[in-house]
Amino acid sequence: MTTAADDVLKPDYTAQGRHFIFNEEHEQLREGVRAFAQKELAPHADEWEETTFPDSVFRRMGELGYLGLDKPEEYGGQGGDYFTAMVLAEEMAHAHSGGLAMGVAVQTDMALPPILAFGTEEQKQEWAVPAIKGTKILCLGITEPDAGSDVAGIKTRAVKDGDDWVINGAKTYITNGHRADVIVLVTKTDPDAGYDGFTLFLVPMDAPGVIREKRLQKLGMHASDTALLAFQDVRVPASAVLGQVGKGFYHIMWELQGERMIGAAGCVAGAQLAFEKTLTYAKEREAFGRPIANFQVTRHKFAEMATKIESARQMVYVTAWRFANGEYPVREISMAKLHASRVSVEVADECIQIHGGAGYMKEYGIERVWRDLRLNRIGAGTDEVMLEVIGKSYGI
Ligand SMILES: Cc1cc2nc3c(=O)[nH]c(=O)nc-3n(C[C@H](O)[C@H](O)[C@H](O)COP(=O)(O)OP(=O)(O)OC[C@H]3O[C@@H](n4cnc5c(N)ncnc54)[C@H](O)[C@@H]3O)c2cc1C
Q1: Which of 18, 95, 230, 282 is the least buried, fewest Cβ under 10 Å from its Cβ?
Q2: In angstroms, what is the span from residue 212 Cα to ligand 1's centroid?
Q3: What whole-number distance in Å separates Cα of residue 133 and Cα of residue 217?
Q4: How far, in Å, CA of 282 to CA of 292, rounded?
């Protein structure tokens, strides 16, 4: 019996298999966001490393509906599922600007979710609606000069005074802190109540006593602005409380889960792009009379990187699927965040190595990928904090 060549099962290396969490609509959205990032953002990436990206990016993304993909239609969002937010996080990598992607993610996936989840109707109208339109900019203040990983150790105090609250303290490393119209602020309202002594506030950044002290200089993410903020006798009305008085710690821990998922998705996408760029380079660059990609050692580097990226991707997608289906898989979210950010930094580092001296030069953009991705092992909870969460989840 003979077998026609067409009947032979061959490896489908070039097939673009769609993961089960995505459907045709997600893929159309993906194409749209990618085209936008490539045409309207990437051409400015180098310039924005010097100047930070302009506020007009928020307005443009608001017009396109990208700031509210998974947000309710009644507040101007697109009413899409959670995976639409994953698509945005992934495709923003095509802007080639980690700082820009982070500034946007602070709006869409850090500050907006608690307003929509815990806010009053007035708060949603005042802040969420314009934030989804891109006409108001948000930031989120958890970290302080003396407390980052230890969120419960924050010192910013809000004290009740008649019907008002008076806030004193400081926040640092605050992304969008220089441009934001409002901050979702984590404060301590009852120092004796343990985890039940925290409260979130929505504090307008032009309120008397809010001081944007310093524009902080960083290793990477240069397109974003990062602020040191002081709060000196900032008086806000009771209507500025976001969520329940005393439940701010739980509210912010919930927020961090979504932030970690989106960050992990961005890490996988960033690593994938660095991989592809480096693969093209390795096929073209020659040494000792042949493309460097053809050395077995280089081939194995790509094989290792691809395997790591794929493992992180599957972990992120399956965990996102559980999260989107109403589960609260904190252990797996921590694992996905830990693994994806580690993989992204390992891949970026290997990509520099494969580029040789060119990898160290600014014009190739690979060193920036490494500098930008490096933040993910620190921000939104460090590797060590993720390991603590995972380890403690086993009762040890
Ligand atoms: C560019 C940038 C942007 C940021 N944007 C924001 C923002 O918009 N809003 C915001 O609120 N924050 C933001 N952050 C802050 C970020 O989330 C914190 O830096 C991070 O959570 C770590 O806190 P820390 O810097 O105080 O480090 P620390 O908590 O001082 O940790 C220092 C080291 O000690 C380790 N460590 C701490 N505790 C433990 C432990 N229990 N066991 C083992 N090791 C431990 C840490 O893992 C780390 O290696 C940003 C940070 C950066 C760098």
Answers
A1: 18
A2: 20
A3: 29
A4: 5
Short-list 44, 175, 198, 207, CA closest to 99: 175
If you take atom 32 of ligand 1, which residue's CA is the nearest one? Answer: 149
**Contact (Cβ atoms closer than 8 angstroms) between residue 128 and residue 115:** yes
Do residues 225 and 235 make contact, with C-beta atoms less than 8 angstroms apart? no
Give the CATH number of domain 250-392.
1.20.140.10
Q: Look at the block and give the residue holding tokens 């095509």.
A: 94
Residue bearing tokens 């709006």? 107
Q: Count CA within 13 A, CB hemisphere, residue 69.
A: 23
Distance CA 52, CA 311 (A): 33
Backbone angles phi, psi at 57, to 5 degrees: -60, -40
Domain formed by 140-246, architecture: Beta Barrel (2.40)
63 assigned to active site: no
Whether ligand 1 lies within 6 angstroms of the CB of 310 is answered as no
Ligand 1 atom index nearest CA of 147: 26
125 CA to centre of ligand 1 in angstroms: 32
* The length of the chain, given as a count of residues: 396
pLDDT 10s digits, 337-374 = 999 999 999 999 999 999 999 999 999 999 999 999 99
| Model pLDDT for residues 59-102, shown as the tens digit of each residue | 999 999 999 999 999 999 999 999 999 999 999 999 999 999 99
